[in-house]
Prior knowledge:
Layout: H1 4-12, H2 17-20, H3 23-37, E1 41-46, H4 51-54, E2 59-61, H5 63-71, E3 77-81, H6 84-93, E4 99-101, H7 117-131, E5 135-140, H8 145-153, E6 157-159, H9 164-174, E7 177-181, H10 184-193, E8 201-205, E9 210-213, E10 222-225, H11 237-246, E11 251-254, H12 260-263, E12 268-269, H13 272-281, E13 287-291, H14 294-303, E14 308-311, H15 327-338, H16 350-364
Parallel strand pairs: 1-2, 1-3, 3-4, 5-6, 5-7, 7-10, 8-10, 11-12, 11-13, 13-14
Antiparallel strand pairs: 8-9
Helix pairs in contact: 3-15, 5-6, 8-16, 9-10
Amino acid sequence: MTSLLEELQLADAMPAHYLTAPADELHARAKRARELLGDRLYILGHHYQKDEVIRYADATGDSLQLSQIAAQQTADFILFCGVHFMAETADMLTTPEQAVILPDMRAGCSMADMANIDQTERAWRELQELFGDTITPLTYVNSTAAIKAFVGRNGGATVTSSNAVEMVEWALGRKERMLFLPDQHLGRNTAVKLGIPLEQMAVWDPIKQKLEAECAVEDVRVILWKGHCSVHMNFLPKHVQNLRANEPDRNILVHPECTHEVVSISDYAGSTKYIIDTIAASEPGSKWAIGTEMNLVNRLIQDYPDRDIVSLNPYMCPCLTMNRIDLPHLTWALEELVEGRVINRITVDPQTADEAVMALQKMLDK
């Protein structure tokens, strides 16, 4: 029988001694490797990363922002402390000579995994039969390169939580209907903000391969893929209701990946950047409950000690897949580069990249 340590080693081939080395030693080794690599290396850190990793980042931000920053760099190596789909986007926006590296290949995104290309192609065929050529596809940037490419070759675009309103408006201005992948909640919350009633929205279930609608098919304007963020699904209406009853003066600020039931009874809802900017602009002494990933909430608590900040869900934990990027994996990736070995390189084939960039470019041009 293998131990947990051996299982982890087998999962990503990282030598076991990285998992047993003291944190102080790993920090010293990571710092030394970073210095030796100099300007050949650029490190990107997503807002949801652990503090032990984010301290090494040359730039922090959300997924698309970091990929755009990567595109501006001349470094030989782009070390992306995030998840797989983010590194894919960075690879598509950088040159073929640059290597994009993900310290732990197991760092994925459950939401992105909820829409694979076979399911999407099958759904598209059935929706075309049902609605004809009346649908513009949109995909959240939290999706695989293959899904971005699908959207690109079918005339659609990518979306971020920051520009979702603008992009949904664009999509519905082009055609009568929109397919929104893979997060139903961002799609629903955005469409509601634009005044589209819930009764005109349907959900495509990729497992059952069927459209779930409460209205007549011809009245459907928004088709939502049945996907979600596993982190933001942990914020429930009861969390908001409990705070309203016990602390009515606490502002409730949530991410639009939360359900519509949560967003509709919160005070504010917006992207990760919006959340950070809102807290930065808030008054000292103000009270906040934030509904988003716990590493970010904890960082805001540290950065703004003169605000009273808590998590909307008191039992919340960090994003488990994002947190697979840790100090041992970061140190391993850095030391391998020092030795001239590129590990865990993320590459997207040229055709997929070209089609996916079409979808990204439509958004960036808006």
